[in-house]
Amino acid sequence: MKLLVILIFSGLITCCGGNSSHSLPSKLLLVSFDGFRADYLQNYEFPHLQNFIKEGVLVEHVKNVFITKTFPNHYSIVTGLYEESHGIVANSMYDVITKKHFSDFDDKDPFWWNEAVPIWVTNQLQENRSSAAAMWPGTDVPIHNTTPSYFMNYSSSVSFEERLNNITMWLMNSNPPVTFATLYWEEPDASGHKYGPEDKENMYRVLKEVDDLIGELVHKLKVLGLWENLNVIITSDHGMTQCSKDKLINLDLCIDRSSYTLVDLTPVAAVLPKINTTEVYNKLKVCNPHMNVYLKEDIPARFHYQHNDRIQPIILVADEGWTIVLNKSLPKLGDHGYDNSLSSMHPFLAAHGPAFHKGYKHSTINSVDIYPMMCHILGLKPHPNNGTFGHTKCLLVDQWCINLPEAIGIVIGALLVLTTLTCLIIIMQNRLSVPRPFSRLQLQEDDDDPLIE
Ligand SMILES: *[C@@H]1O[C@H](CO)[C@@H](O)[C@H](O)[C@H]1NC(C)=O
Ligand SMILES: *[C@@H]1O[C@H](CO)[C@@H](O)[C@H](O)[C@H]1NC(C)=O
Ligand SMILES: *[C@@H]1O[C@H](CO)[C@@H](O)[C@H](O)[C@H]1NC(C)=O
Ligand SMILES: *[C@@H]1O[C@H](CO)[C@@H](O)[C@H](O)[C@H]1NC(C)=O
Ligand SMILES: *[C@@H]1O[C@H](CO)[C@@H](O)[C@H](O)[C@H]1NC(C)=O
Ligand SMILES: *[C@@H]1O[C@H](CO)[C@@H](O)[C@H](O)[C@H]1NC(C)=O
Ligand SMILES: CC(=O)N[C@H]1CO[C@H](CO)[C@@H](O)[C@@H]1O
Ligand SMILES: [Zn+2]
């Protein structure tokens, strides 16, 4: 009895007293290692990343968005939107109405980005908060007239150390405080393209370098005293698959180049016919069995890749590992961009910090679910999006979650217990109802239990 009272009392004290930790604004650092295929984690060693996961959470597969390319997927992570809804539908785009072009080297016109509001902009519109970016597609563009308060112009020649130094400096010394920050790194994507993911020897070396960078990141955060209070998400935009010179689809064998404009090439080609769409479609349709050809209106709904002017009238989707070319040899040994239901296209997600459980593993979420989770951590009201907050509840300490297998287990368990009890009661009643001539009242025992005094 006394023990119970003490327990209840201490519970009241812990939940109603000491709210100092809640008054600090939550901070979040979002890190992307481009092209980090989910199963690299199973097939290679990552001592530093595994340590990070041991004290945090891991989502083994993140189902990303179609097309599984870099710019579109990075924008989906920070907006929670499918590509047709955020407007960055490829790394290379053409807008028929304005005749504007977009490419990864010419991406600074806000026109392309303004169909959505990325989280760093929303974060900054809240009182006394700023955002910082050590690169991330779109962070050097004034989207809705707003860049992060602190950012770098994109340049692949800035070292990881410099990106890390500057982003941590901004996280520490800024006023108003930086509560949302991004960090982007080009590997293992660049090497994945160059060697192909099946080149174990080279990928081993490259992935060890990536793991060492994660080690540097954690070390730096610890040295600066940021580690305990900062939430850190490490994820990626897409995976990588092996390509081959024997898996080429040469469009020149099927159709004259003069009859269409090619806005994007492989593995998803965006085709803008010059005169007769039906004619171009009919020729491409029979071009190669390892390529699906869709009129815009027939693109499968599961791709969520249709309702945007920047999606061209015909798209060609190569089968996994196949490369679309214009009478050329194989350009790269590894590629991505394919169907987002292929597990080779999926990245992973790991997270650590006060918002996350410790030592929890989860099988899968969608990349669009990351946005509502980040908004929750930062206390921001999310813009309308395609993610589901409920999918990430199990990762978060302040949420009550129960996953499906557990729920089924509990229901079955409860049913078993109920059935057993019912049977026991029936048996007991049957026994009691047998007349017992010599039964008499039992003396009531003193129920004062000395143990709980
Ligand atoms: C913003 O923060 C600064 C410094 O922390 C403080 O002086 C100022 O009053 C704050 N402004 C608002 C509107 O909260
Ligand atoms: C990083 O910070 C240093 C020191 O403030 C500055 O000189 C440098 O230009 C910054 N680097 C980038 C890429 O912005
Ligand atoms: C980015 O580049 C633009 C144009 O080259 C320049 O005006 C601007 O100062 C640069 N911003 C930063 C943060 O380096
Ligand atoms: C492909 O290119 C070669 C020369 O590089 C040329 O001889 C050949 O005709 C071309 N084939 C097609 C189908 O355009
Ligand atoms: C387009 O091509 C198809 C098939 O070749 C043909 O039947 C149709 O008449 C053409 N339409 C126009 C507008 O030229
Ligand atoms: C995705 O979210 C946007 C914004 O709420 C909405 O307009 C769009 O219809 C959604 N897409 C799907 C497939 O639900
Ligand atoms: C017990 C305690 O620390 N209470 C604090 C909770 O937070 C409010 C506002 O941040 C403070 O005013 C209380 O003193
Ligand atoms: Zn790439």
Task: List its traits.
four-stranded antiparallel beta sheet; disordered N terminus; eight-stranded mixed beta sheet; 18 strands; binds 2-acetamido-2-deoxy-beta-D-glucopyranose; 453 residues; Alkaline Phosphatase, subunit A; Gyrase A, domain 2; binds zinc ion; alpha/beta; 2 domains
Strand order of the largest sheet: 6-5-7-1-8-17-2-18
The counted number of beta strands is 18
CATH architecture of the largest domain: 3-Layer(aba) Sandwich
Radius of gyration: 28 Å
What overall form do the CA principal axes indicate? globular
Protein architecture, described:
The protein has helices spanning 2-16, 20-23, 40-43, 47-54, 70-79, 83-86, 119-125, 160-173, 189-195, 200-223, 277-285, 370-378, 404-432, and strands at residues 27-33, 57-63, 93-95, 100-102, 130-134, 150-151, 178-185, 230-235, 241-242, 248-250, 260-264, 268-273, 291-295, 314-318, 323-325, 334-335, 349-352, 360-366. The chain has 453 residues and is an alpha/beta fold. The chain has 2 domains: 27-81 and 116-242 and 339-395, 3-Layer(aba) Sandwich (Alkaline Phosphatase, subunit A); 248-334, Gyrase A, domain 2. Helix 4 (47-54) packs across helix 10 and helix 8 packs parallel to helix 10 (200-223). The longest helix is centred in the last third of the chain and has 29 residues, at 404-432. It is globular, with a radius of gyration of 28 Å. The structure holds 2-acetamido-2-deoxy-beta-D-glucopyranose (7 copies) and zinc ion. It is an enzyme of class 3 (hydrolase). This is Bis(5'-adenosyl)-triphosphatase ENPP4. Pfam families: Phosphodiest (PF01663).
